[in-house]
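Data deposition worksheet. Section B asks for the primary sequence of the deposited chain exactly as it was used as input, without tags or linkers unless they were present during the calculation. Section C holds the resulting structure in token form. Section D is free text for depositor observations; keep each observation to a single sentence. Incomplete worksheets are returned to the depositor.
Section A, Depositor: J.P.
Section B:
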Amino acid sequence: MSEAVQSPRKVAVIGLGSMGYGIAVSVLRSGHMVWGVDVDAKRVDKFRSDGGQPSEITGAACELDAVVVVVLNAEQTQDVMFGDGGIVASLKPGAVVLACTTVSPSFAGDMAARCAEAGVLYLDAPISGGSVKAANGQLSIMASGSADAFAAARPILDSTAEIVFELGDEPGTGSAMKAVNQLLAGVHIATMAEALTFGMTQGVTPEKFVEVISKCAGTSWMLENRAPHIVSGDYTPHSSVNIWPKDLGIVLDIAKSVRFDAPITTAALRQFMTAAEMGHGREDDAAVAKVYARNAGLTLPGEE
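Section C:
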């Protein structure tokens, strides 16, 4: 992560959710000029008050050096890039798009090809690390693209990442690696919830679960990060339940395309879908524990 830059870039960050906002702040902190774009005007206003550019992106798009896309899914990615008023058509030749959303490898390849037709560089750059690391410029980025795309994106990567995995020149390779990561991350969250609530049936409190298991071989980063949300009864979303039907759905779509059986992923996906059906879709993804608690007749911390 670089705290200062010799040549400030003009950058737009599209999508000011928990991850996108942190990315925008990290790029801003490194001395770049940053426009924040979001459908939520309050998020845009907040970013402007934090030092973001006060003007609308429409007037600055032709001057941008880089665009970071951190929206929800492939549909939104395509829309902000190539839909009505899509930004790619306004970018100058040689500008780079860093696409950070979890998408399929084939979609990333298609976006890269369409950008190339417009004279714009594309870096397949899915991210991992959570909202806190995003805000601290300490993300892990799984990136693939041409040498020119990496070179154009370097100041942004330096501002936002603790580590950048350079996975080759083929857009889509980064997205393939992110799918592998999301398979594990989603399964780990669901399994954490299963283990925590199973422990409750045996008299192990959620507090004691975190104290002991986080120091044992059964721990994981997701357990250590998410289980405390259950202990506190605070489901303020850092990453929401609704993320996982999308991300694990992508994993299973890829698996189906190569005739790969992924039964554990399928089981985890079912739990997140049930949590969403119960009305917890916008809550922190640790709320998947509420599925297990309901089925077992358990009362989680913070519930009456």
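Section D:
The first helix runs from residue 18 to 29.
The beta strands are 10-14, 33-37, 66-69, 96-99, 121-124, 127-128, 139-143, 161-166.
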